[in-house]
Amino acid sequence: MFSIEQSIKDQFVAVANHISYPLFPENLYTPIQYINTLGGKRLRPLLLLLANDLFGGKIEQAMPAALAVEWFHNFTLMHDDIMDNAPMRRGNATVHVKWDTNTAILSGDVMLVKAYQFLQELHPTVLPQVFTLFNQTAVEVCEGQQLDMNFEHRNEVDVEEYLQMIRLKTSVLLAASLKMGAIIAGANSKDADLLYQVGENVGIAFQLQDDLLDVYGNPSQFGKQVGGDILANKKTFLLLQAQRRASLEQQKQIDYWLQKTSFEPLEKINAMVGLYEQLNIRAIVLEQINYYTNGALEALTAIDLPKSHKLRLEQLLFQLLVREH
Amino acid sequence: MFSIEQSIKDQFVAVANHISYPLFPENLYTPIQYINTLGGKRLRPLLLLLANDLFGGKIEQAMPAALAVEWFHNFTLMHDDIMDNAPMRRGNATVHVKWDTNTAILSGDVMLVKAYQFLQELHPTVLPQVFTLFNQTAVEVCEGQQLDMNFEHRNEVDVEEYLQMIRLKTSVLLAASLKMGAIIAGANSKDADLLYQVGENVGIAFQLQDDLLDVYGNPSQFGKQVGGDILANKKTFLLLQAQRRASLEQQKQIDYWLQKTSFEPLEKINAMVGLYEQLNIRAIVLEQINYYTNGALEALTAIDLPKSHKLRLEQLLFQLLVREH
Asked: Are B79 and B209 part of one and the same domain?
């Protein structure tokens, strides 16, 4: 990443790092500062600011919305980590572990409100539209988290339900970030909607790729244990596709491994990957990733701007999708 | 309560009862419907709508903000009940007990977002000002809850700190509800600010009265066990005033009862009430209630409207403050 993206990201980080946190009550605001400084890719604000730039908007005018989506995203992480019982986030202790659950609940709440407080700074001509989109998206992200939690307690999940869940939990915020940037820059509604579709498709492709990388990623580059989802019986796109396509005999083997409580980790991973190979799951998932990637590209192409202007955004989005697998 | 207040409340309840909840994900929205239908006084939306009426506003234009403050208030109850480990709310099981903590966190989150979604419906000319006030208030309510939780773990709390806590936790939302109604009706900023002061003062007086009623209330009308705060070692205004005024000997007795883990409930209540009597705490608290009540009355008097127009709001507010003690 260089030039315009790096410059935009630097500007965002500079502004984000100069946000002053109230000193009192100290134990309400310290966890917010903590989670905000754990780093992360700053993907959502970057997409928002790039989209705004794409349509000739000024970065200062879009900055409040960029801060809002980043704070909103970090709010969801703080609350999701409680619900998912997650001990670590970006290599550090999660807020509910480092402090306690009550702190993570209340600091998360105030973070969500502060995200809205950034939106106050938007120009009144764009505020209603951005506000409406932000609200809609926030509701959907909560719905996605609810579906994700529900799936854990269910034996059967359809592939279609899974796609709906990842769309809500991941894609809509990427999509809305892009669209907000376009709205603030004064893009017409057709182009703004197309940009939303770009984000929606990229988000799904990205999430499917994440599932694929769990099995087929290069561990040194991927940064997670290969097969972690398999060991955790996580209902990934790979598992759901395998369950849909398995013969009775293969279904029995899948159930055997899902139900077995004591096993050699490597043996379980190898058995499941073996089943995935028999069922050609890798190719099926790659085909789906391709489908959504093409959907994103088509929407981007249809946006009424010279191709050369859209190149940077295209490159950034496809960097997300060309990881080591 | 009759005529205009009853009519406004009926209209609010009719609208609130016709809100349709999404059917899916069912376990995200059922708890919201549950807490919203537990009843309650609807005090905040009623104040908002009365203030709007006072300045000649149309009820339909203020209704979205009335729904927003009610949903926001119920969101805080849902999350506070988790943090306070409260089993019951308005005579029914709390959401985190009836469902579980994760449900109460996520349903609460989506409720907060939905409160903002109601604000979308406001006229764009009043949206920015109402939005800013709503955000500021929401942050303060969270700060108040944090202070309240912090006080539980502290040995010493100043009377001034306590007043700040109840101002944030209770008063600012009453005050903001009144001010939002005024803003939406097009009141000038001086009158809107005065109405805010009315709510701020009434809220503090109301909370101090609540502390007083724990000890001096008529149990059959008050609806709670007399002395409940004393048994729970709750840092009420009465206890903090007693600690400030106690002689060394009286301080020793207070500490004795605060630290004693095994006791006859009635004996502890009688001992503490005896100390309060020695220290004249009842008169001191009544004087403070009077002070804030007068503050509210002065602000109401200063509002540039005929006295007769303000009578209904005055009556409603002072109904809150003339309970059975």
From this structure: no
C-alpha R_g of chain A: 21
Q: Residue B321: which pLDDT band, with cuts at 50, 70 and 90? A: confident
B270 and B315 in a single domain? The answer is: yes
User: Considering the domain boundaries, does residue B161 fall inside one?
Assistant: yes
Q: Does B258 share its domain with B311? A: yes
Looking at A317-321, B101-105, B120-124, B314-318, which range is the least confident one? A317-321
Q: Do A110 and B135 touch (CB under 8 A)?
A: no
Q: What distance, in Å, lies between the first and last C-alpha atoms of chain B?
A: 20
- Rounded to whole angstroms, the Cα distance separating A117 from A68 reads 8
The reply to whether residue A102 touches residue B120, judged by beta carbons under 8 angstroms, is no
Q: Which stretches in chain A have pLDDT values below 50?
A: 1, 324-325
pLDDT tens figures, B243-253: 999 999 999 99
Domain containing B250: what range? 188-325
Q: Where are the alpha helices (DSSP H) in A55-100?
A: 59-83, 95-98
Q: Within this chain, do residues B12 and B157 fall inside the same structural domain, yes or no? A: yes
| Start-end of H helices in B84-158 | 95-98, 101-119, 127-152
Could you tell me which chain A residue has the CA closest to the CA of B130? A120
What is the per-residue pLDDT across B15-41, written as a single tens digit (0 to 9) for each? 999 999 999 999 999 999 999 999 889
Report if residue B9 sits inside a domain. Answer: yes
The C-alpha atoms of residue A182 and residue A300 are separated, in whole angstroms, by: 13
Task: Report yes or no: A2 and A315 within 8 Å, Cβ to Cβ.
Answer: no
Q: What is the mean pLDDT of residues B73-90?
A: 96
Report the number of distinct structural domains present in chain B: 2
Distance (Å) of CA A115 to CA A134, A314, B125: 10, 28, 22
Token output for A100: 């306690």
Tell me the pLDDT tens digit for each residue of B51-77. 999 999 999 999 999 999 999 999 999
B196-221 tens-digit pLDDT? 999 999 999 999 999 999 999 877 66
Tracing tokens 């205009």 back to the chain, one arrives at B4
Model's pTM, two decimal places? 0.96
* Residues near A124 by beta carbon (within 8 Å), at least 6 away in sequence: B124, B127, B128
pLDDT at B269: 96
Does residue A25 have a cis peptide bond before it, meaning omega lies within 30 degrees of 0? yes
Q: CB-CB: which of A102, A120, A143 is closest to B25?
A: A143
pLDDT, residue B221, reads 66
Query: Best of B125, B135, B150, B152 to disrupt the A interface by mutation (most A CBs within 10 Å)?
Result: B135
Which residues from A are below 8 Å from B79, CB to CB? 105-106, 109
Last residue of a domain, one of B130, B165, B200: B165
Residue B305 is which amino acid? L
And the tokens for A75?
């709010």
H, E, C per residue of B135-155: HHHHHHHHHHHHHHHHHHCCC
